[in-house]
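Hey, quick one: can you model this chain's 3D structure?
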Amino acid sequence: MSARTLRIGTRGSALALWQAREVATRIAAQPGAPPVELVQIRTSGDAQREIPLWQARGRAFFTREIDQALLEQTVDIAVHSLKDLPTQLEAGVALAALLPRADARDALVSRSGAALAALPAGARIGTSSLRRRAFLARLRPDAVLLELRGNVPTRIERLRRGDYDAIVLAAAGLMRLGLAQHVSEYLSAESFPPAVAQGVIGVCARSSDADALRWLAALDDREARLAASAERSLLEHLQGGCQVPLGALATVQGDALTLTACVCSLDGTRHLAAQARATAGEADALGKRVAEQLLARGAAALMAQERAARAVEEP
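Sure thing. Here's the predicted structure for all 315 residues.
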């Protein structure tokens, strides 16, 4: 009997397709691997281009339709940028594998090649992320922050066209698409903390699909799993989401795990930071501990004020 084809659900952007093909390649590298095929799915995040996503109500803009296809059995595997995936998965969906993390940092791409500190006063900087806007406002309060949507190549083309003096993108996406030559500066995770799970590819399957889970188990990376577990636990306990200016990064050294996080007001004038360490077996507890530190320092009030100012629905 011929092997069952594993259908991989993915968005249709260049970066999403790169990620899906990477998963397909890693499955195919295993002895006796089944055939795979890519199934492109349009998400609500792809469709909603008229307004910034942080002004839209709801969540899981780039993942919901793909996971729904998984549950409806029109695909067998769902590939996501893990930073887009909610901390609470749909019932029946398992986060089966996390691929090795790429560079978690953000990168500045400027028309002149100048670093962030060297951009002229009043420089126009494009980003679609509240987190990036907040930390940009903190580091360059003089900058004019503009909305930026579209896939990675489109964003770079808009920069070249002169719509912006600089834009901020995830370093991992630029590297994966062979566009790292455009980077003017890699932004320090200490002063410009990345999004939770940035740089990690998450692979989901139905929790009842033993066959798909078996092929994905070999793809799971220990360090990515530990770091992402701590960061996503932090996000869950803070009740955060894409509408919250939160940056966090967990690092793994042997059996030790360190998590650093920062919540920043959108105007950059207030920020709260916390850090803690734990053993690798305490990743979830570490995230909760750092969240409690931030909450004790006033993070809940800061986030509530930011949400009220924008009238954004709780995620």
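One thing worth noting: The chain has three domains: 1-99+200-220, 106-186, 222-315.
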